[in-house]
Amino acid sequence: MLADLEDLASALHATLLDRWTGGCEDAPPGVASLLSGPSVGQRQIEDAVRGAARRAGEDGAVLVLAFVGHGMIPGQIPRLFLMAGDSRRDEPTTVVNVGDLLAQALDTQGVQEVIALVDTCHAGAAVPDIAALGTGIRGGATRLTLLMSVGVTEEAFGLSFTRTLVDVLGAGVADGGEYLSVEAVRDAVNTAADAGARLVRMDGDPFGQHRWLARNVRHVQTRGPLLGAVGEEELAWALEPLGETSRHSAPHSTADLERLRKELLGIPCGLSGSAADVTVALRVVDGLLDALRTADLLRSWPGTPLTSERIRRAARAAGGTTATPPGADGSDLLRDCLERLRLRVHRPGCSRTAPMAAFVAALAGDDRLGPDRPELTAWARTVGAVVELNDAFAALAERETSSRLRLVVSLHAALADDWPETLAAWLLDRGEHVAHREFACTPSRSGVEQGLPAVLKWASAEARRAGAVLRRVEVAASSALLTRWRPEEADLGVRLGVRHDVVLRWSERLCPPDHLYWINDYARDRLAMMRSEPDGGAPVDWLSRDETDRPAELNDRLRDGAYGRAVGLGHRPERLDQIMPHLLAYAPIVLWPQGEEEVPAGSRTSVHRYWDRLPGEFSAAYRESWRSGGGEGGPPDGLGDLARLRSVWHDTEWLDFCDWFETCSTDGENTG
Q1: What is the mean predicted confidence (pLDDT) over 521-526?
Q2: Reduced to 3 states, what is the DSSP secondary structure of residue 517?
Q3: Mean pLDDT of 325-353
Q4: Which of 142, 246, 527, 586 is the most exposed place for a label (fewest CB within 10 A)?
Q5: Backbone angles phi, psi at 105, to 5 degrees
Q6: What is the DSSP letter of 35?
Q7: Secondary structure of 335-384 in the HEC alphabet?
């Protein structure tokens, strides 16, 4: 019976290890992950469990435990004692108190969850004192999944539960999905063995969720290739010089890739290919493994549920438009984005894991998750991106700080399309109104520009009081002024746009006349449609000369909703000031060339490339153009092409401000 128990324990250990790691990870050196046989004593068992809990806490990992053997309860007290090799029934100090040991593991800082399998007589007595965990170190903020072969008063025979469990995990569960929940495993075991396995779950962590028990081999065997188009292409390209392509079918699991990696490490460089070829192949395999491990993290994401739109937005923020595959959605989108970020998006001077770390950080930033979140730190250690993840979070914090304050300078007091006698200024902190002031000026372009230094001086002082730096200035003006004025070039000692990102807004949206009451709601609808477009890139409808030369037909098409996205003018019409009011009423974003008659192809490409960093990237492009003198070469990376364009940009932040402004104006409140 003892030999049978040891064999069964080894089988259970091997099955669980393979179903959790794909058979690819070994225990740390000097650490035993399987204890079995009559030589294993009480102290050894307790020390092993406590040590495993400590390591799981350090890694922010899930701890999986299995107790298989002879169990007893002392008298009428429902506490399970596991008998070790040196235990004596009449000496309680020599037995393993399973409930207390589980409670200690649960109360270990950093442990995501404890999953315990118990196959002993009276297994139902293994439940720890859950109420007492609330007064522990973690205050009960922990998760327990406990699957037991029998109830408190029942005996277990022939280790039937463990045998059936090994069979179920080895064969998989039909229609069980890619990952098997504990409920699915319990039901399968009870059905197969006509048993009554019991399940207890405790969830005291409001920010997480229970993990799956094992990968479902039935699902792996029936699904398609593990890799997307990018992964398959990169792998075939890397293996071809080594003559390995024909020897390997498309991998279906992480274990397949790990086995391939071991084979590559064993290739003698003098026999098949060169050391450089092996290095390239290993780099691709490691990249695919990193992508799969990241997918595992995101399938059990500790924040709010992920959507295709969130994945697309985070991927573009981390790697630009090249990181988002056209047409993909759901799980395919996630897989393809990760493969592109890890294998094809490279940042000069950065490691290959930096784009993927930026992607994870972007999703975490949406959910207000910090870099010390256990799931994230464990992932970063696994893929070797600890520093990269910290850098990505630091970059997020810097961007948030730089975009925290916004100064709105409005020329809406102008009569008709002329220059105003008053500049109205508001300082906003994360959308909240901090200060408001009005400044007198001479009603001319020079008068307005000469009034801007006083506005900036006031706003900078208010920003210092708020403990932040003012970077963004939003200028609202009439459509006529927007087409002929470049406020970022206003002279404040240096150009306004040298130290600030300047965004142009249409002042008519602040308090629309009755016949345009609908324009801000319409803009919100259009922005939502643009965000939901599956192919990423720039959602811009570029208008031809033929369209703008027939303004009556263009107006009809605008009213019919023909242009549901941003609008770009492919050339600069002669009567731009007459066309612009109609475009601004229907399109939340309008682009047109600075001075060229036609928009160069490179400018359209740059809009597509930088779309997720606009409108701020326009200011960067103007700055680079000024520094380079506007020469033929221009600034690098397409910014020169971007600098040839002008824009009026209305995002949800501006529409929120318009709603507030209109409400305050209607109510007659003091906007200060």
Answers
A1: 94
A2: coil
A3: 85
A4: 246
A5: -65, -40
A6: -
A7: HHHHHHHHHCCCCCCCCCCHHHHHHHHHHHHHCCCCCCCHHHHHHHHHHC
